[in-house]
Amino acid sequence: MTINILLTSFDTWLPHQQSNSSDDLLAKVSEIESLPYALTFLRKLPVDPKLGPIQAIAKIDELQPDIIICCGMAESRKNLTVESTATSDGEILHTSIPLSSLVTNLTITEISNDAGKFVCEALYYSVLKHIRDHHLPSQCIFIHVPILTQENIDPIIKDFLSIFELLMNRTQAPLDVLSTFN
User: Fold this and answer.
1) What is the CA radius of gyration of the chain?
2) Model pLDDT for residues 65-123, shown as the tens digit of each residue
3) How many CB atoms lie within 10 A of CB 133?
4) Residue 157 and residue 141: Cα distance in Å, rounded?
């Protein structure tokens, strides 16, 4: 069974930004030819809290992916950060993926409880709500990507690909095995 993964990234939004690290990471991943997943890239979403989610949800409805990994840039962070929740109008939505198990053996990834209160959170909240409201079997996480440097690019790519592997194993596992992952 092929696992279908949708990956999203954002465009830049400030004049000093030459690129968006979330899109830079997806560009690097798209160059890897030997990955055993069906990857679909929805790159450079508009930095708009309404338009970005509309485009992402349209692609989700079209593809019906098993896993959705939304990515955004976090210029002030040093590690990859997997977001636990997204909030809108006081409603908090949680990913269905047990993040503590996901990041346990990763070297440059940690859990965050702050999706940013801007387009990243708007996208994450919208996708989690869409999954919930339409009873989709898709699972979603949001990963913030720090500025990529020569020093951090290799460990970030390694952790990012490890997340794929962990999510793929979780998606393919029989239900009794999943209960041990939770």
Assistant:
1) 15
2) 999 999 999 999 999 999 999 999 999 999 999 999 999 999 999 999 999 889 999 99
3) 8
4) 16
pTM above 0.90, yes or no: yes
Closest to 7 in 3D by CA, of 51, 47, 56? 56
SS3 state at 39: strand
Residue pair 81/112 in contact by the 8 Å Cβ criterion? yes
Return d(Cα 144, Cα 138) in angstroms, integer.
20
pLDDT in tens, 24-52: 999 999 999 888 888 999 999 999 999 99
Please answer whether residues 82 and 99 qualify as being in contact, where contact means their C-beta atoms are separated by less than 8 angstroms. Answer: yes
Q: Tell how many helices (H) and how many strands (E) occur in the chain.
A: 6, 8
Give which of 174, 106, 175, 179 is closest to 141, Cα–Cα. 106
Going by the DSSP 8-state scheme, the letter that residue 118 receives in this structure is S
Cβ proximity of 22 and 71 under 8 Å: yes
CA 36 to chain centre: 18
Hunting for tokens 């440097």 — which residue is that? 149
18 SS3 class: coil
Burial class (CB in 10 A: 0-12, 13-18, 19+), 69: buried
Beta strand 91-94 pairing with 85-88: antiparallel
